[in-house]
Amino acid sequence: MQRTSAKLNKFSILLVIGLLIAPFNSQAQELEWSNTRKVKGRTAYARVIGENNSGLYMLRFRNQMLTKNVVIERYRSNLSFAHARNVQLKKARLLYAELQDTGLLFVTAHYDRKGTRNEVRCQWYDQNLDAMGKQRHVLSGGISDFYDKGDFRIRFSNNRKRILIAFTEKSVDDKRILNIHVFNERMDSLASHRYLLNIPYNNFFLTNLMVDNFGNAYFLINEHKFAIRRDRKRDDKSTVYWYNLAQDSLRDYQILDSGKLLRKAIFTMDRQLNKVNLTAFYADEQSPNSDGLFHFHLWPNQPERSPKLVYQEFTDKFKKQLFGDSKSALYEDVKSFDLLRTLPGTDGGITIVAERSSVSNETDIQYINGMPTQTARNIYNFDDVLVISMDSNHQIKWKYLINKSQSSLNDNGYYSSVVIANTRAHLYIMYNDRLRTNGDVLQYKFTSDGKVTYKILVRSDNHYTSIIPSEAKQIAYNRVILPVTKDRKFSLLKLDYIN
C-alpha cells in the first residue's frame, strides 16, 4: 500500500507539473528546417510561390526582370527537396506565378512581331512540374513606341478566385487608355473594358491597385508634370477609380488636397465591414518629413454613401511620445518612413507597419598605376520600424518603435528590412540583427491590445544565419516560409504559429 501511495503521489506531482507547463507549450512556435543546399551562381534569387497538398513550390531566377529562364522547385511537406524544372522563357518575361488547387499558374508577357502588339499568355503546370496543355492567349495590347514592353499589373483577390490584369495604352490624342481585365481562378474572362482617361500620357502614374473577392477593381492614379527644377511645384492630383463589375461602371474620386503629396499608399479590404481602405503618409510638396497619416474609405456595397477622407496630423505631442521630448532626441520628425503593411482590424480600425529607409551614394578616387579612377558605391540603410494601431475613428490605441540599424553596400538591401506576419491573434516582425557581424534573427510579437515581447528566433552561434526578407512569404494564416542563407548555403525555415 505504501508503494502504491508513493506511486500515486509521484504521478499526481507529474500531472500537476504537466498541467502547469501545458499552457506555455500551447503557445509554442514550431520551427522546421530544410537541408542546406549549395546554389550555383552568386546572383541566384528565390521567391516562395505557395503550398498545397503536393508540397511547397519556389521560384528561382538569375535576374530580377524574370526573363530568359526560371527554375521551379518543389519541396515535400517536410521541406525535403523533391525535384526542379527549368522553364525556358525565351523572349518572354514572367509576370506572375500563382499556386492554385488545380496546379501552378504562370502568367507571361510576349511581343507579337507580326501584329506589333504586346500579349499576355498563361500556362498551367501539374505537381510534377509538367506543362498541362498548351500555352493560352489571355489578352493583347497596343504599343506606344518601339521600346514599349507593356506596363501589365496583376493582382489576386484575398480568396485567390478573382484575378485583375490592368495595363495602359496611348490614344491618338496622347492620352492614357486604362484597360481592365478580370478573370476567375481558371483564367476565364469575366470582364474586359477600355477607358479613355483625360490624363496626358506622360503625366500618368498608376500608383497602386487592388481587386476584391467579387471582382471589383480599385486604382490609385497620380497625375503630375515632370518637375525639372527641385524648387518647382509638382501640383499633384490623385484619383481613386472604382470599377464595379456587377454594374459594369467606372467611378472616380478626387482625394488629394492642393499642395499635398501621398507617399506609398496601400489599398486594403476590410472584410468585416466591406470597406475599402487607402492608407498613406502625406506631406507638403516641399517637405522631406511626413506630416501625418492619410485615410480614404469607400463602401462598395453602399454606393449612396459618400467616401470618407481624413488627414491625421502628427502633432508635437505624438512625436514626443514616440521619439522622446529631450532636445537631444535622435528623431524629432517622422522622416523617411515608408509604409510596409496595413492590416484592417476586426473593430473597423487598422494597424500600420512602416520602416525608415534610405539610399545614399558615395564616390571615391583611387590611383591605379598613377591614373585616377573613380568608383561609386550605393549604401542601403534600413532603420527603425514604426507600428501604429488605430480604432475605427482613427484614434491611436497604441504605438511602438523598434530601434534597429541595418546598412549594406551594393546589394539592394538583400538581407535588410523585415518580414511581417499576422495571425488571428498576433502580429510578428522578424529581421536580421547586426548584419555586419555574426548577428541573430530577432522576432517581435504584438498582441491586439499593444503588448510587445521579443526573442531571438534563430541564433548564429555556430552557423552564420541570415533570413532573406524580400523572398519570404506567409502562405497560410499561421505559416510563414523564410528563405535563409546558412554559412553561404541555401535553406528554408518553416514557422508555424499556434494562433
The parts where pLDDT drops under 50 for at least 5 residues are: 13-26
Outline type: globular
Supply the number of helical segments: 2
Widest β-sheet, arrangement of strands: 2-3-4-5-6-7-8
Total strand segments: 33
Percent of residues in helices: under 10%
Distance between the termini: 46 Å
Question: Nearest-angstrom radius of gyration?
Answer: 26 Å
Structural class: mainly beta
Largest sheet: 7 strands, antiparallel
Give the DSSP E fraction (strand runs of 2 or more residues).
over 45%
Mean pLDDT, rounded to whole units? 86
- Regarding quaternary structure, what we see is single chain
Gist of the model:
7% of the residues lie in helices and 57% in strands. The protein is mainly beta and 499 residues long.
Which keywords apply here?
about 55% strand; 33 strands; 5-stranded antiparallel beta sheet; 7-stranded antiparallel beta sheet; about 5% helix; about 500 residues; globular; mainly beta
